[in-house]
Amino acid sequence: MTATTKLTILSTSDTHGYVLPTNYVIRAGVQPFGLTRAATVINTVRQEDPEHTLVVENGDFLQGSPLAYYAVRGTAQPDPTLLTQAYNALGYDVGTLGNHEFNYGSAYLRQVLATLTYPLAQANILAADGQPAFAPPYQLIKKGELTVAVLGLTTSFIPHWEGPDHIAGLQFADVLATAKTWVPRLRKLADVVVVIYHGGFERDLASGAPTERLTGENVGYALSAIPGIDALVTGHQHRQLAGHVHGVPITQPGYRGEAVGQITLTVAHSGNQWQVQASSARLLPTGEAAPDPQMTTLMAPVQATVEDWLDSPLGRVQGDMRITDPDAARITESPYIEFIQKVQMAATGTDISGTALFNNEGTGFGSTVSLRDVMTNYIYPNTLAVLRVTGSVLKAALEKSARYFQPGPHGTIAVNPRFLTPKPQRYNYDMYHGITYTIDVAQPMGERITQLDYHGAPVRPDQVLEITVNQYRAGGGGNYTMFSADSIVRENQKDMTELIADYLKAHPVITATADHNFHVINSSAT
């Protein structure tokens, strides 16, 4: 006699604290994403068979939105419940950690985790003694007649991005080795083995061809090949994926709750064991779902407070510091970018600075600058580091940035599609101030910097320079392998949002200027 049952696995990942359906660019803005919309989708599916529905949170939930920032920086003392009350209300069965969980340090992370009412699984982030640092490696969860083992894993690449003080005393074990250790054990303990991995795919899902440098940041393709995994939930890359890899159903539900991952397993009982007979994977878009009314009501008081906080004026602008065309702002220096460079140089005492226009949602500054303007333009809690490098290293970094472009038709300048798919990486194109340089996209990659001057003279390969960049870039983040923590000579540990606010307090009226020290050209047009 063979009996069958179905197990539904619903997942969110990379919600980044976007609970209400807004990106905060304008007060009470409405966007087609957010945890409240995801909650409606999840509850609709879950109520069909709650006994056999597993709901998982796959990391990167406590950093990203102004709400998340307010919980840690906007009050006299950090109060993570202002954010985590929403995640608790959704009713997750289990969660794991993302890399951005460490952006405010381990102490705050532990404070956050103490407020969660659902359990975590995390197997490869270890304390100094080799034991799990934050949660058990796995959770055994009963779903109807099934025992489900959920193994939690997080990209081991975190030390390449995070400030050392935020991860002191922690070890980040290899994801694949950890999974190979635990999956066979879990097969003996459970009927179904689910891996939730805050990481993505390093290869094309169909062909297996590499889609990025194989650094170990994303190992989802190799992970899915480990025998014994019945379902794999992924994240980190902000991609929307659903399908099968090596026969294993996989999902990745995008960014800010724009979709919910759904994996359905048909599990048959024969003899003395359960076995997955069939599976499907799909994404459930949330954009047209009405925000969950209970969660919306729960979050209304803090949301109103955050909106008021964001509208606090910080300074005024003489001139025009708006960004109306973000693509153009990466080709011709905008006053907003020059302003950010000035803040970075003032905070670190250098006269060379590099920064990025992180996405296409920022609009720069209008005539009055509010905290909302600061936080919706500078979206990461970066700190700053000063690197001591040679001219050849600086040129290598500029050549890396120059890969962002490619020649377009009729002598135009286009964006290299590798920076747009499979994951947008606009944050990996840096613009510099304090030097004069030219990028010629008509030249071969690696030979595009046709001019590089400092104080009116060509930069020599052996010339020693101090440059300011964010901590992520200083550690080599974004595959800027010419940089490393070994070259850091000093740091400013304040978040950039605080540094910008402090600068505006000291300079309540700022002037929109751009000296156009860099040029991006396509010489084939001439």
From TrEMBL:
The keyword Cytoplasm does not apply. It comes from the Bacteria. CDD domains: MPP_CpdB_N. It is found in: Cell envelope. It catalyses: a nucleoside 2',3'-cyclic phosphate + H2O = a nucleoside 3'-phosphate + H(+); a ribonucleoside 3'-phosphate + H2O = a ribonucleoside + phosphate. One of its GO terms (biological process) is nucleotide catabolic process. GO terms for molecular function: 2',3'-cyclic-nucleotide 2'-phosphodiesterase activity; 3'-nucleotidase activity; metal ion binding; nucleotide binding. It holds the Pfam family 5_nucleotid_C. Gene3D superfamilies: 3.60.21.10, 5'-Nucleotidase, C-terminal domain. One of its GO terms (cellular component) is outer membrane-bounded periplasmic space. Residues 328-484 form the 5'-Nucleotidase C-terminal domain. Residues 8-239 form the Calcineurin-like phosphoesterase domain. The keyword Membrane does not apply. Its main location: other. PROSITE patterns: 5_NUCLEOTIDASE_2 (PS00786). Keywords: Hydrolase, Metal-binding, Multifunctional enzyme, Nucleotide-binding, Signal. Its cofactor is a divalent metal cation. Signal peptide: none annotated. Belongs to the 5'-nucleotidase family. This is 2',3'-cyclic-nucleotide 2'-phosphodiesterase. It comes from Schleiferilactobacillus shenzhenensis LY-73. The lineage of its organism: Bacteria, Bacillati, Bacillota, Bacilli, Lactobacillales. The gene is cpdB.
